[in-house]
Specification:
- The protein has 164 residues and is of the alpha+beta class.
- The protein has one domain: endopeptidase fold (from Nostoc punctiforme) (Alpha-Beta Complex).
- The chain contains 4 helices and 8 strands.
- A 6-stranded antiparallel sheet has the order 3-8-4-5-6-7, covered by helices on one side. Strands 1-2 form a two-stranded parallel sheet.
- Helix 1 crosses helix 2.
- The longest helix has 14 residues.
């Protein structure tokens, strides 16, 4: 589409959060939420989907081809791509793994994926006064701002990836 993947991902994530999805963990027969509800992994899934990466298909295929890498007893393409644990395994296997040091400023770009122990988000192209990137995420019910300056407040970053 003429837009680099990193910019495309950020644009798509912003379009998704403009819908102000309400935080609620639900199972969807088609996989992707269709009713203005969602969780943290949906921010990533919708951001990547419209950039040409269908995580539902990609994660399901990887789980079926490499079951030893995932802790999934019965693969389910409708939910497996919405689990942070599975996404961390997938990105570790198929994306560029980057620094976890948030102060290594030039290594953090908008469109990157950041994974915490039980949470996931997309790195924003906005930065705080120190140059540390914001994160676009969905963390709790009634969230006022989906794009927040949270990296310095977290001590549980376990992954930082670039898909493109």
């Amino acid at each position: 589409d003429g837009i680099d993947d990193q910019s495309d991902i950020v644009q798509n994530v912003r379009k998704y959060i403009e819908t102000k999805p309400q935080y609620k963990s639900k199972y969807y027969q088609g996989g992707y939420p269709t009713d203005h509800y969602g969780v943290c992994s949906d921010v990533v899934a919708f951001g990547l989907l419209n950039a040409g990466y269908d995580l539902q298909i990609l994660v399901d295929q990887d789980i079926r081809e490499n079951p030893q890498s995932y802790q999934v007893e019965h693969p389910d393409k409708n939910i497996d791509f919405r689990r942070v644990r599975n996404l961390n395994v997938y990105f570790k296997r198929h994306a560029l793994s980057l620094t976890l040091d948030i102060y290594d400023l030039d290594k953090w770009q908008g469109g990157d994926i950041v994974i915490f122990k039980k949470h996931i988000g997309i790195v924003s192209n906005y930065r705080n006064k120190k140059g540390i990137t914001f994160v676009i995420h969905h963390a709790y019910p009634h969230q006022l701002y989906y794009e927040e300056d949270i990296l310095e407040k977290r001590n549980d970053i376990i992954g930082h990836y670039r898909i493109s």
